[in-house]
Q: What sequence folds into this?
């Protein structure tokens, strides 16, 4: 398994209970306090979530089944593969690195990755969308603890609300992955795994500029019966920061950009005789100001309230020499948006969107004669949208089958690995009973030219993206005749790995060709109308390096990319947008992250990201200038008696760059944060 151990065999089960047979719980003769806590927690969590699980669900992902003893990824294959053997461009960030970096959410991390960028609408609390390889946020599939975060309404995820505080690892795989993950995975997949090893009781406080405050409480326990985790979080900021308007003049203060977030998470894993059962819950409540674009000195007064609740269960058991996984769960989100400045029918705009997802999954992984590894699975999913802004109660029923393999071959003295995958998705949208059936194949190869040193890889895939509920059923302009979008994706690369200072160097070239892309077009009246008319091609080059010096005393990550993403077709005669670059896609970008371990207790991190010119009009007659942002973090650790204390100071946008990622949405200048964490 390439340095990977199944949790049900190693991580949770003691030698006395590692045996095949019935799925009974073996109760030790003497229970510790931690065991009693785990058992009570599990019973409480099971009964409190059973009703919701019966009504809604979300799809767990196979990654949670493994404890990683080496740098291993599963996102690019659905099989655990060492990073040096991965057949796609992929970056992995472990918890030890995340803890030191000046990052708080996924939106802070992604700009440090080759081929990735963030469409930031104004800093903390604002809308922040991920873009991989110049493609839109709807083409990046994001999983959080096995739960697919992209809903059927818009298929986008606000990555500024995905905290990295209790995260064990983040995997970012770039390329087309519909053959493994289905709809929307045209640009790539991001997989976030929460902490899997319980920490002692932890208290954290943070204070910073613009009224930023954070408080967190967490902890967990390990025992012979399994393990459990609990965490609570609170964050707020007024975000009244100074900025210079794009058109010049005196400095203004950004108003109505406040943020208030409260979160809670619980999970528990119960060890059976030869199997495990896991239940995970997560709740987030977010209230933010949404001032909108700054087109004058007047700023909007809109407010947005989001609630998200997730529950998932997973059963893992060895079966006939392989590993069987059964999962079910739920994800429910409510978004409420109120804008007193927009009056419709004499009433201020007050919209509501309720999304519910129920999913059932099963997968089976097996090694065949230590030569072929195979993963097969199926998923069933039901999405429901209730909203004042769509003309019907939208429902989607989807069933999927997939198979993926890892085939190692020997050619002379070189190692060749083939990674074929195939997925079939069948969906029905109600109430109009429109159906779609899509087959998504892919094949990838990884060949060592020099054993364990120089390798080449390539991957080609056929992907699709189903129309969203907004596109199909929006009250003023939806089109229920839309077809799925399709793309062909190709990428190839060279990867160099050494056992000395150069840990890894990776160069990739890619080509994404999207046809039948859905765009909203003027309909001749007041409303716009979505149509399958656009052809988009994105080509580019990505470079990433990981360097370590003096036994990891210095670690350096470097990345860079050049992307040419263009609309190739003419939607009508004389279309001035034909062959023009897509808006908000930087022509080039680069980042650097330097981590220095100054002593056993002190570390310093410096990150710098550069973004090139970005057009914000479709005819490319107006653009935003390049910008550079530098962040610095200092991390101190100390121990006293039975307590461990960590202090982290962050200086963000250290050189006070004035820039806009999205036109007319100012971003914060220089600001500081201090975070104190105590483990009891």
A:
């Amino acid at each position: 398994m390439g340095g990977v151990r199944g949790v049900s065999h190693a991580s949770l089960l003691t030698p006395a209970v590692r045996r095949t047979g019935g799925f009974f719980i073996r109760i030790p003769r003497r229970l510790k306090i931690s065991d009693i806590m785990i058992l009570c927690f599990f019973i409480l969590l099971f009964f409190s979530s059973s009703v919701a699980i019966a009504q809604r669900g979300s799809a767990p992902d196979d990654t949670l089944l493994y404890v990683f003893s080496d740098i291993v990824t599963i996102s690019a294959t659905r099989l655990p593969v060492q990073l040096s053997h991965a057949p796609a461009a992929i970056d992995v960030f472990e918890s030890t690195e995340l803890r030191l970096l000046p990052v708080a959410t996924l939106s802070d991390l992604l700009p440090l990755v080759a081929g990735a960028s963030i469409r930031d609408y104004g800093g903390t609390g604002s809308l922040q969308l991920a873009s991989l390889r110049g493609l839109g946020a709807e083409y990046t599939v994001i999983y959080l603890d096995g739960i697919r975060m992209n809903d059927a309404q818009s298929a986008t995820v606000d990555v500024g609300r995905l905290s990295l505080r209790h995260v064990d690892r983040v995997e970012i795989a770039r390329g087309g992955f519909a053959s493994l993950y289905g709809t929307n995975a045209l640009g790539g997949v991001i997989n976030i795994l929460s902490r899997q090893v319980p920490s002692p009781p932890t208290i954290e406080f943070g204070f910073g500029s613009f009224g930023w405050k954070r408080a967190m409480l967490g902890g967990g326990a390990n025992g012979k019966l399994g393990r459990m985790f609990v965490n609570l979080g609170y964050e707020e900021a007024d975000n009244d920061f100074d900025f210079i308007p794009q058109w010049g003049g005196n400095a203004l203060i950004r108003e109505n950009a406040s943020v208030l977030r409260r979160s809670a998470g619980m999970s528990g894993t119960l060890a059976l005789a030869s199997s495990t059962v896991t239940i995970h819950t997560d709740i987030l409540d977010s209230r933010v100001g949404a001032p909108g674009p700054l087109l004058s000195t007047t700023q909007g007064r809109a407010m947005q309230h989001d609630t998200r609740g997730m529950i998932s269960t997973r059963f893992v058991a060895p079966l006939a020499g392989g590993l069987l996984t059964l999962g079910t769960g739920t994800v429910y989100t409510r978004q409420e948006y109120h804008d007193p400045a927009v009056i419709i029918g004499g009433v201020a705009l007050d919209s509501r969107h309720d999304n519910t997802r129920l999913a059932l999954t099963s997968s089976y992984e097996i090694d065949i004669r230590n030569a072929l590894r195979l993963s097969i699975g199926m998923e069933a999913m039901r999405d429901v949208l209730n909203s004042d802004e769509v003309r019907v109660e939208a429902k989607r029923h989807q069933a999927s089958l997939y198979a993926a393999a890892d085939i190692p071959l020997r050619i002379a003295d070189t190692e060749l690995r083939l990674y074929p995958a195939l997925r079939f998705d069948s969906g029905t949208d109600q109430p109009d009973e429109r159906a779609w059936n899509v087959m998504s194949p892919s094949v990838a190869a990884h060949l060592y030219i020099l054993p364990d040193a120089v390798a080449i890889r390539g991957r080609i895939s056929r992907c699709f993206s189903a129309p969203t509920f907004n596109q199909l059923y929006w009250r003023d302009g939806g089109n229920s005749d839309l077809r799925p979008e399709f793309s062909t994706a190709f990428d190839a690369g060279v990867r160099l790995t050494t056992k000395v200072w150069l840990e890894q160097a990776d160069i990739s070239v890619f080509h994404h060709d999207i046809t039948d892309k859905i765009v909203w077009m003027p309909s001749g009246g007041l409303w716009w109308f979505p149509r399958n008319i656009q052809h988009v091609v994105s080509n580019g080059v990505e470079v990433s390096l990981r360097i370590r010096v003096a036994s990891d005393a210095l670690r350096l990550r470097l990345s860079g990319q050049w992307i040419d993403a263009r609309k190739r077709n003419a939607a009508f005669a004389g279309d001035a947008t034909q062959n023009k670059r897509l808006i908000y896609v930087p022509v080039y970008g680069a980042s650097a992250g330097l981590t220095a371990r100054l002593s056993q207790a002190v570390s310093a991190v410096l990150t710098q990201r550069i973004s090139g010119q970005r057009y914000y009009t479709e005819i490319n007659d107006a653009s935003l200038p390049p910008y550079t942002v530098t962040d610095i973090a200092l991390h101190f650790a100390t121990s006293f008696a039975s307590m461990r204390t960590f202090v982290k100071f962050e200086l963000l946008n250290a050189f006070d760059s004035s820039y806009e990622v999205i036109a007319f949405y100012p971003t914060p200048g220089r600001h500081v944060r201090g975070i104190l964490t105590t483990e009891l």
